[in-house]
Amino acid sequence: METFSKAKKLTYFAVLTALTVILQLLGNTVKIGIVTLNFSLIPIVLAAILLGVWYGTALGAVTGLIILFHCGILGADGFTNVLFATDPIIISLVCVLKTAAAGALSGLLFKWISKRNGFVATIIAAGIVPVVNSGIFILGMLLIVPSLRAAGFIAEGANAFAVIVIGFVGLNFVFEFALNVIVAPALYRVIKIVDRSLFTKTETKDEE
Does the global pTM surpass 0.90? Predict the structure, then answer.
């Protein structure tokens, strides 16, 4: 895989950050039934596989902060807003950690597997982001089960783990996983083709 210069990486990072803001703002306004159409994990995948581990981690952290501020503090998403009010410290940590860790692991897996098979590496790097994101969210929710019961999210006597996995994560995870595995690799290929084309044109002009 072509190694981007630092300037090019910073440019791509800025573009992906702006895209993350736009997708996060739009994602919480579009729903199909109970499923929120959240596309904001895709830029994390692209940062991880295009720019590397540290950029994937950084964009993941930025995404988490955006989610925390937009959905938790400002209340764009009612559920996240109530969770933040219930336990602001845990929810703040979960929001940032889940996406930052997702970006980090995505970048690491891509770096390791791409030495053997670039296409497989792209698919795995794309798929691991929603898995880690949802996994850490579930762990975070398990830490505040008493608060969730007190707030009425989990009924007394109900299996907390089942409610969190099926009720809180459920279809949103399925959608995010499918979207990332399908869309992120396609966008990655398009970006690489466009970048290579522009790079070749620049070289040609320089030679003339």
Answer: no
